[in-house]
Specification:
The protein is α/β, with parallel strands linked by helices. Helix content is about 40%, strand content about 25%. The protein has a single domain, classed as Pyruvate-ferredoxin oxidoreductase, PFOR, domain III (Pyruvate-ferredoxin Oxidoreductase, domain 3, 3-Layer(aba) Sandwich), CATH 3.40.920.10. A hairpin with an 8-residue loop joins strand 2 and strand 3.
Length: about 190
């Protein structure tokens, strides 16, 4: 099994933890893994993305444009920016919830998240849009978006891991007081 996965969002959304959960799940199965993270201005709401390469033959952690099997997008605009990496026929799992860029907040540009979702609908054959606001309301926490998106990625069939694999990674990497919530978040997409 070889999978190239790109996770993208903005600082504070849990993008890095999600990539580490994927990596932990793969390592626990003995599958080779390479990762690279770019966090930039993450603490200020800047772009964050992680490249995750699972399987044999991944000699470098960065994924070339056109070679990503799955994009897990925590924010619609950031997901659109990463589309050149998606291979033809690849899948995208994206949160509908927008995080307005700083430039739009201070009036230097406009931002229309629904236009970004429409663009994805027009340009991505295998698209899953996750209602992050509904998930946060039903789970009682917006901080589970990362694991909700991993659950949706599992359902897409493009993650290359099982629910049990990710549950093991959650038990290993998530503090005990948050484990039950994250287990429910992982299963939320199937409710």
């Amino acid at each position: 099994m070889n999978k190239n996965i790109l996770l993208c969002g903005v600082g504070g959304q849990g993008t890095i933890l999600a990539s580490r959960l994927i990596a932990s799940a793969a390592m626990a199965k003995g599958i080779p893994i390479k990762t690279a993270e770019t966090i930039g201005m993450a603490q200020r709401g800047g772009s964050v993305f992680s490249h995750v390469r699972i399987g044999e033959g991944a000699n470098a952690p960065l994924i070339a444009k056109g070679d990503v099997d799955l994009i897990i997008g925590f924010e619609p605009g950031e997901t659109v920016r990463q589309l050149p990496f998606l291979r033809k026929g690849g899948a995208v799992v994206v949160s509908r919830r927008a995080v307005m860029p700083v430039s739009a907040m201070i009036g230097q540009s406009s931002y229309d998240a629904e236009a970004m979702i429409r663009y994805l609908e027009e340009h991505v054959e295998h698209l899953t849009v996750v209602d992050a606001d509904r998930a946060a309301e039903e789970l009682g926490s917006a901080r589970t978006l990362n694991v909700v998106l991993l659950g949706a990625a599992l359902a897409s069939g493009e993650l290359g891991l099982t629910e049990e694999d990710l549950e093991g990674a959650i038990r290993e990497r998530v503090p005990e007081r948050f484990r039950d919530l994250n287990m429910r978040a992982l299963a939320w997409d199937r409710q």
